[in-house]
Amino acid sequence: MGNIFKDLAIKYHTGSLLIKLIFINIAVFLIVRLTGVVLTLSGTDINPLLSYLQLPSNLSILAWRPWTLLSYMFLQYDLLHILFNMLWLYWFGQLFLHFFSEKQMGGLYILGGLSGAGLYLLAYNLIPWFSSTYGVLLGSSAAVLAIVIATAVYAPDFKISLFFFGAVSLKYIALITVLLDAISITSQNAGGHIAHLGGAMLGFIFAYRWKQGKDITRFINTLIDKIVVLFKPRPKIKIKYRRPESDMEYRTRKQKETEDIDAILDKIKRSGYSALTTEEKKKLFDASKK
Predict the structure, then answer these.
(1) How far apart are CA 109 and CA 96, in angstroms?
(2) How far apart are CA 67 and CA 48, in angstroms?
(3) Span 2-231: which CATH code?
(4) What are the tens digits of pLDDT across the range 130-149?
């Protein structure tokens, strides 16, 4: 069992950011689900715990749980939910890395999740149809969809093979995905579909601006780098203080150095320079520079 965790740790540390994002999502899923099993067996409900990780639609509650703007995009509780999200992330993440960098993927994942959260909060607090509804949002779908749409907008005619359909251009996959979310806004999972559209919108903006020579993920990546540096442990610098030599110690040391050099010179006279040891050659060389 120990070897399994060791292998997983090696794959995580040596893998690309895509692999790290998948590992993080799966790890959070397993931790939350196992915690749910333990709480259920002990007669406790998991929902109060989830409420501190899910994004609430109520702004007053959100004010006391601001971290949920980030935590929600790494949280999945249903097996099929995380399965489909991670498959989409893996497939399109690999394509994304053909055209963009790992840093851009990380920045876009975060910005896509935030964009999905922003549109979700606007809809639930401004659209009358949602005014009497309290919702919670969880899942990486908005962040993943930002990567999907960005890839499709940047390389719309790039084709991938799908079961039963054959080779299909990315632009059609993106279009169908967005349309399905748009017509599902009034469904039972309205909040999720709205967040998907927010992530898709951010992915479109990223690819469009990138074609114009602008990288909208730069500022978020700069911020992340500063935070990482702030919390990164700094190497300890050992400072050794040496007591100054006294006059007697100085004269003794200089006399010893002179005697050593004289002995080396005598050895050269007797046996030649090649008879010197490496240490003796170093001493002679150091003395010649003084």
Answers:
(1) 12
(2) 16
(3) 1.20.1540.10
(4) 877 888 999 999 999 999 99
